[in-house]
Amino acid sequence: MKIVFSSLAYPELGLKEVVERVNRFGFDGLELRVADDGRHLKPEFPISREILEILSSIKISDLAGYARFSSEDENERRRNERILETLIKIANILNALGVRIYGGEFSEENVIHKIADSLNRMSKIARDYSVKILVETHDSLARKDNLVKLIENLDYEIGFVYDPANVIFAGDSHDEVYPLIAKRIFQVHIKDFVIRDNKRIFVEPGKGVVPLSKIIKDLKVDNYKYYVSVEWEKLWHPEIEDSDVILPKYLSYLRKIINEL
């Protein structure tokens, strides 16, 4: 089990400075956000020599991409398929395990079939490039009922980014959702939170409602050999604690649990 962090933690820094922190803090790698805003990499291929040189000293666990497939518009879904294909090519060059995608928000059940159709169509491309497509438990796909329906229609080669904090915030539990996807998880997002005034407030590990010790224990029991990624979302929540302070705390907390087990 390897511990990485998401570059979401440093929206104010360039990629070189983020990579420096991976090495300085002693993480095993980086979950690299790839988005149109260019923080920290744009979904454009080929990759520049400068970027390749910056990333050469670290392991990239996965690309946190923003392809979504819940649109009713087939042209929009096809556009996102092209984005995903670009991300797959980037992941292959960077030797990343996979590419994170979203299901998106939806209310109509038939959308799940559209999501599955797009992902199943892209599965062969991902296989050809030795890259995993990873569906995050996020938005509507953080809910157990929707996940069950998606799994029924999804190629088995397609994996998951498991975010238990999203699952809990959506009203389900780790014990309910984890067994559904346990054998298909290739990345786990780690963050803790409390609810105040109906809002999710992110906190230090062990001080919130997410059963981090139980999650790590379950992963160890299942002989999980992939990545856990500290997802400290400073980009979306600039008010939370400074990443230089919190990331070493999460790293120490997780390593302690892993060593004790």
TrEMBL record:
The keyword Repeat does not apply. Residues 20-234 form the Xylose isomerase-like TIM barrel domain. The keyword Lyase does not apply. One of its GO terms (molecular function) is isomerase activity. It comes from Sulfolobus tengchongensis. Keywords: Isomerase. Gene3D superfamilies: Divalent-metal-dependent TIM barrel enzymes. It comes from the Archaea. This is Sugar phosphate isomerase/epimerase.
